[in-house]
Amino acid sequence: xxxxxxxxxxxxxxxxxxxxxxxxxxxxxxxxxxxxxxxxxxxxxxxxxxxxxxxxxxxxxxxxxxxxxxxxxxxxxxxxxxxxxxxxxxxxxxxxxxxxxxxxxxxxxxxxxxxxxxxxxxxxxxxxxxxxxxxxxxxxxxxxxxxxxxxxxxxxxxxxxxxxxxxxxxxxxxxxxxxxxxxxxxxxxxxxxxxxxxxxxxxxxxxxxxxxxxxxxxxxxxxxxxxxxxxxx
Length: 233
Prior knowledge:
This protein is an all-alpha fold. 72% of the residues lie in helices and 0% in strands. The chain contains nine helices and no strands. The radius of gyration is 20 Å and the shape is globular. The N and C termini lie far apart (52 Å).
């Protein structure tokens, strides 16, 4: 009976984690509404979920807004660049699709390949910004190189990220509507949290522990706050 009501048992741990993801997701969605803040919101989302993947987080909201404020300028610049690239790829791909001849097929394949590269960079760019101090240029470079160097993880995270698209193929409208609502309530944070478990394994290869890092038990300072070094990719 004591185990049943023990706050450390698996059920309560699961419910606590679900509540954290719900709360994080709501804050993320609200902060994305101004549109221009999407980059900062994505960075803050990954900042928190990377901590959650390591079981390091303490205050979800405070950690979110800490990263939001800290990375706002760089994340906004990166997001504008990503949006511009996405727009160019979208319009160019549509133009090529309307063209005829063998050249259009070649160009279409090239743009599809560029789209795949774009997705790979997108999976890493905001987590890299959340984890490491760096310039915008080096953040893009490191995100691209990591996506190639850790290709199996990149493919796995890409499949996980695009998996929710299957919701739109649900034939029953009521079930589809419920699935969309559920995703809006917790989906973004859940995806970031799942991918976060792979990202921490990748980032561990590039974190250089500081010599004066304090590892005493009970310290309020977490490894994430003391090891945001520039990755030597």
